[in-house]
Amino acid sequence: MEERLQKILAAAGVASRREAEKIITAGRVRVNGKVVTELGCKFDADKVRISVDGKPIAQEAKAYYMFYKPRGVVTTMSDPQNRRSIADFVQNLPERVFPVGRLDFNTEGLLLLTNDGALAQALMHPSHEVNKTYFVKVPGIVPQEKLDQLRLGVKLEDGPTAPAIVNLRDYDHERGFTLFDITIHEGRNRQIRRMCDAIGFPVRDLKRIKLGPLQLQNLGRGKFRSLSEQELSQLRKAAKL
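Structure for Pseudouridine synthase, as requested:
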């Protein structure tokens, strides 16, 4: 079956589909020995020879890792500003994996790393509504009516958000902070921070603690581990695969 070249590269674990597009347009991909730079080209991966930087792509064994992204790390495999990136942590892994979705530079927490392009696309597809839960710390004592605004959805410049699940953890009256968990299924850029800005309580600390059925437990910052068979099965179910 013929598929777009960037999809073939993603399925082979070369990079995410977005990064694969950059690799193609940079002239780093050859098909049957000829450089291909057009993104619309389709091929049957079983009938052609595809190489990246002179190395044939291989259908690697699928790999799935839970990674605890620290703050101050960009969710890419390289960075033109020479900031720390995901690649700095996974360079010794036997497989070439890429992050599923993004956490912004100052957000820490759970990130899935894989070379399974089909699973990655399914998890990020808006219609599948895979939940993501974050631990939020904001300065000030947030009144319940403001938390209710998050629960109902708030208006942002790119449209209203879907209702969120908000669980209050604690009011730290002594230090003047509110701690709560918020669960969303949308994937807009910096969405939690923008939602908290909208209710007048900018985020101080933000950490993703759940992605679908996966929970960030017993894992240090900058560390990763393979998913268990049970976790992978639950994740596939959440992604509707």
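The chain has seven helices and 17 strands.
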